[in-house]
Design a protein that fits this description.
Blueprint: H1 2-16, E1 26-31, E2 34-38, E3 52-55, H2 73-83, E4 87-91, H3 94-102, E5 107-109, E6 127-129, E7 131-132, H4 138-148, E8 155-158, E9 162-167, H5 170-193, H6 203-206
Parallel strand pairs: 7-8
Antiparallel strand pairs: 1-2, 1-4, 2-3, 4-9, 5-6, 8-9
Helix pairs in contact: 2-4, 3-5
The structure holds zinc ion.
Length: about 210
């Protein structure tokens, strides 16, 4: 089916970007009201169309399937419902995890062209990407991510873990993930250079 092929192709692409190492990460997409998510424990570099599981609103596999859905399927289901999105991406991108360590109260982004990639203004638009604490309890993690959501930002970072991004399609969720990785990397590198970012209220600026 189309969504199986799309999830497999997307997983391999995100693996190639270095964000799904060691079987980490997962992607999901809605087909009508039915949610499909990548299977647990599969190497994303070789994930195929058969490595996709149909799940319910709590991320549990529908009957009659042999594969186990990703443990984080529940988080995907919660995000799609809360954000009214059609697809979600979860990756262990280093940039997001490091940015959350640097700015645990939320990652500030401002004044850079790539912000348009997440639907925000290139200049003068202050964006803070929410950061929530990690949990091994998927019900708890789902609640934290949903509570942490900002309606103007299609991403939540889970500290010491990875990022969740969503969109109206898998293509949009992936494009936003790529923009966010660039933005986090940019913020971290500017910070390392000691550059002052205007309009960003952080401890870094107060040190000046
Ligand atoms: Zn994860």
């Amino acid at each position: 089916m189309a969504q199986h092929e799309e999830l497999a192709r997307t997983s391999r692409r995100l693996y190639d970007l270095g964000w799904m190492r060691g079987t980490s990460g997962n992607v999901s997409v809605l087909d009508g009201s039915q949610l499909f998510v990548t299977a647990s424990g599969v190497d994303k570099s070789s994930l195929g169309e058969t490595d996709v599981v149909e799940v319910d609103g709590h991320g549990a596999a529908l009957p009659g399937q042999s594969l186990t859905p990703s443990a984080e399927a529940r988080v995907h289901a919660a995000i799609l419902e809360a954000a009214r999105a059609r697809a979600a991406v979860h990756v262990h991108a280093m940039s997001g995890v490091l940015a959350a360590a640097r700015w645990p109260g939320g990652v500030p982004l401002v004044d850079v062209e790539q912000l348009k990639g997440i639907g925000r203004g290139a200049h003068g638009d202050r964006v803070t990407v929410p950061v929530v604490a990690n949990s091994q309890d998927m019900a708890e993690l789902s609640a934290r991510v949903v509570q942490g959501m900002d309606t103007g930002v299609p991403c939540v970072i889970v500290a010491e873990h990875g990022i969740y991004t969503w969109g109206g399609s898998l293509e949009e969720a992936v494009a936003r993930t790529e923009s966010l990785d660039w933005l986090f990397e940019h913020a971290l590198r500017l910070d390392a250079l000691g550059a002052v970012r205007q309009n960003v209220d952080t401890p870094f600026l107060e040190d000046q």
